[in-house]
Every structure is written in C-alpha cells, then in structure tokens.
Specification:
Order of helices and strands: HHHHHHHHHHHHHHHHHHHHH
Number of domains: 1
Helix content: over 70%
Radius of gyration: 22 Å
Shape: globular
Structural class: mainly alpha
Largest sheet: none
Number of strands: 0
Strand content: under 5%
Distance between the termini: 26 Å
Length: 446
C-alpha cells in the first residue's frame, strides 16, 4: 500500500494542478470584457476542438508506461509519437485556417453567431497544443515506468506556474481579448511543461532505460499498432463527446449561459475525478508485480470513497457560493448552474477510480480492444440522452449534458468491469500461487 501511495500521489497532484487551469482561465476571463461571449467561445468551441485534435495522442502516457521497457522499444515508440503529433497538428491547422472551420462550428456544432469569430482566434493560438502534449505525455510515461512519478507532478507545477504568469501579465498589462488570453495561458503552460520534461527525462533515459535488458520478445511495429490504435480510437471517441455536448447545449434552453458555465463545471468534474484518473498509470505500472492485485483493489475502494466526499463539499451552498461567485467572480446565473451540476456529478469521482482500475488491468493484458468498446458504449448512451434532451427541450442544456455524460461513464465502467473479468481471475490465481510459494519458503518456515 505504501508503494501504491508513493506512486499515486504525485500523479494525482499533477491531475489536480491541471484541473485548476480551467477555473483559473475562467476566473480571469470572467473579469474581462464580454465574459459570457469569451467563456462560451472557449468552453463551447476552442477547448473541445483542441481536445479532439489531441485525442489520438492522449493515451501515449499509458502506452509509454506499458511499452517503454528497453531502448529499442522506446525509440520505436518515440518515432511513432513524433509522426502522430505532427499529423494531428496539421489537422488542427487545416480546421482553423480553411472554410472547414465554419462547417464545423456553424453547421455541426451550431454555435451562437456571436462566439464564432472569437473562437477562431482562440483556435489559432492553440496550434502548438497537440504536439507539445504528445512529447510531454510520452516521456512522462517513461518516468512513471522507472519510478519517477514525483518528477511528473513537479512538471505540472511548472505548467501551472507558466499559466498563472501569462494570465496575470495579460490581465494587468495588455488589452488582449479574453479568448486570446485564455489560449496564450494554456499554450505557455503546455510548452513550458514539455521543455521541463525534455530536461528531466534525460538522466532516466541515460542511466536506466538504455542499460535495461532488451525484451525477450522485441516490440514490433505491428504489436505496437495493435496495442495503440484501439487506445487512440478510444480517446477520439471520448473527445467527440465534447463537441456533441456543445452542439446539444446550443440547441437547448439558455444556450450561451450553459456554454459559458460548461468549462468550470467540467473543471470541477475533472479535478474531483483526477484522484481516480491518476490511478490508471499506477495500476499499469504495479499490477505486473506479484501479490499486487488485492492492495490495488483495496486502494481503489478507499480512493473512490474519499474523492466522492471531497466533491460532496461543493454541494453545500455556502461553499459553492464562496468559490464560484466570490472567488471566481462568475456572473449570474453561472454559479447557480455549477452548484446544481455538483449534485449530478456526485457519482463521477468513484466512477473515475474504477474506470482506471479496470482499464489498467486491461492495459496490463494488452487486450486494448475492449477499452475502445467501452468508449463506444459511453458515446452511444451519452448521445442518446443528449438527443432526448434536445427533443424534450424543457430543461437547461448544461444539466442535460452533465447528466448524459455521467450516465454514459457509469455504463462504460460496467462494460470495463465485465470485459476485465478474465484478466482479474488470472491475477487472483497468480497472486494466490505467489502467496503459497512465499508461505512454503525456508525464510517463512524459519
């Protein structure tokens, strides 16, 4: 349990700091000119589309943690990461710099006309986003693989410091529009963290990865693609949900207010789910050790209970008002929207923990297709609920969107539980044999 905690807490701290980016951006933009327009452009168009362009490289962290066992595997995976990062950056440029932008934003997302122009400016600024994150997540996986998760947490501190610095300078010393400042802050953060990771991973590569013995079965290109393509599709499907949610909210009651509140509500969900989200790489890194299955399961239960209790604090009206109305200075009715969403989100932290637990076990087995299946299930359930909300049309959009996503995540977790049952039986049998061998050893007998 001490090993699990030592591996988990720096990663959880990293998730939390990344989660604070959204509220920090919203807090600054809310104090600038036309806050609702700029927040809606950021949360309804810029951030969802940037995440979609980033989607295929999100799982590079898990892939690197699982596969960077020796130098040859690292070089092969690094080459793949660089090509994928370049390709997705090119797609981002094509979207924002061609008429395709208006097809997506006006015709598909159906964004309110007043946010179309500001959102395009934000997307131009976000062009370096995908490649920087690809490089950073790939090398973070190497550090986690060799037990340096604390360096990952410190990297996120560098990122958040760069965010905060740019936001402060932009707010006090420039006349940038809110959407431009939001994009500049985010890009400063991810580029700074990528540079930090580039520097800090060098000793690990030189002293630990290069001398590591070559894998008994070399990592082939086919094996790498068979492992990674389902994971890439997983995140692409997952992040398609964000524009679908934006499109649905744009067609429901109080569209601009819902889109403006969505980034902060999503950040609350991300922060409180980060305790569980960070657990995925912990399971991947540790489950291969003998006698690890039960401690990992017990830790997951404790983590689910604790993270749910933290989110429950935000359902208290006084706490919610102090954070969203006073500290973040969000305009009415955004604090009320977000407070009500916290009740809808209550199951989310525990769901995130057990998703990571079951998903990490599946990654250990390298049978990644079932992870893609689970996301397809999520997308189907969430989309059906969103369509139902649009057709009904009597409830404010943000409540339908949040409820649809939570329902989809719950069903996804059930799917992962079902698909991981064979691997879990194998792990239980492995650990039972390891405990029996330990009990029969001369040291225990003595």
């Amino acid at each position: 349990m001490r090993t699990i905690l030592r591996t988990w807490w720096p990663l959880a701290a990293s998730w939390l700091l990344m989660g604070f980016e959204g509220p920090a951006v919203a807090s600054v933009v809310a104090r600038m000119a036309e806050p609702k327009i700029n927040l809606a452009a950021w949360g309804g168009v810029v951030f969802p589309l940037s995440l979609m362009a980033e989607a295929p490289i999100i799982m590079m962290l898990a892939a690197s943690t699982a596969l960077s066992r020796d130098w040859i595997s690292y070089v092969k995976l690094r080459r793949f990461m660089m090509r994928l990062g370049a390709s997705m950056t090119l797609i981002h440029i094509i979207i924002v710099a061609t008429p395709l932008y208006y097809v997506i934003v006006r015709d598909i997302i159906h964004a309110p006309e007043e946010i179309v122009g500001p959102a395009r400016l934000g997307l131009y600024i976000m062009i370096p986003w995908t490649w920087s994150i690809a490089y950073r997540r790939f090398h973070q996986g190497v550090m986690i693989r060799f037990g340096h998760s604390l360096k990952v947490g410190l990297g996120t501190l560098v990122r958040f410091s760069a965010d905060a610095t740019v936001l402060a300078i932009g707010f006090f010393l420039t006349g940038l529009p809110g959407i431009a400042l939001a994009g500049c802050g985010m890009i400063a953060g991810v580029v700074s963290e990528a540079f930090y990771v580039h520097v800090t991973v060098r000793p690990t590569l030189k002293n630990e990865l290069k001398p590591a013995p070559a894998a008994e079965v070399p990592l082939t290109t086919r094996a790498m693609l068979d492992f990674y393509i389902p994971l890439s599709l997983t995140q692409l499907l997952m992040l398609v949900a964000n524009p679908i949610g934006s499109a649905a909210m744009s067609r429901m009651q109080l569209a601009i207010e819902s889109l403006a509140a969505w980034p902060t509500a999503g950040a609350v969900r991300y922060i409180t789910g980060g305790f569980g989200g960070a657990y995925n790489e912990v399971v991947v890194a540790l489950v291969e050790r003998d006698r690890s299955y039960r401690p990992l399961r017990v830790f997951a239960v404790c983590l689910g209970v604790g993270s749910t209790a933290i989110l429950a604090l935000l359902t208290i009206p006084a706490v919610s008002h102090a954070i969203f109305a006073r500290l973040m200075d969000l305009a009415d009715p955004l604090p009320t929207f977000i407070h009500r969403c916290t009740f809808i989100m209550l199951p989310a932290p525990a769901i995130a923990v057990f998703q990571s637990y079951f998903q990490g076990i599946i990654l250990h087995s390298r049978r990644t297709r079932s992870i893609t299946e689970s996301v397809a299930v999520f997308l189907g359930v969430a989309s059906a609920a969103l369509i139902g909300g649009v057709v009904w049309g009597r409830i404010t959009g943000i409540y339908i969107a949040m409820g649809s996503f939570i329902l989809g995540e719950f069903v996804r977790t059930l799917w992962l539980w079902w698909r991981s049952r064979t691997v879990r039986r194998e792990l239980r049998a492995r650990d039972a044999a390891a405990w029996a061998a330990l009990a029969e050893s001369p040291e225990m007998a003595g």
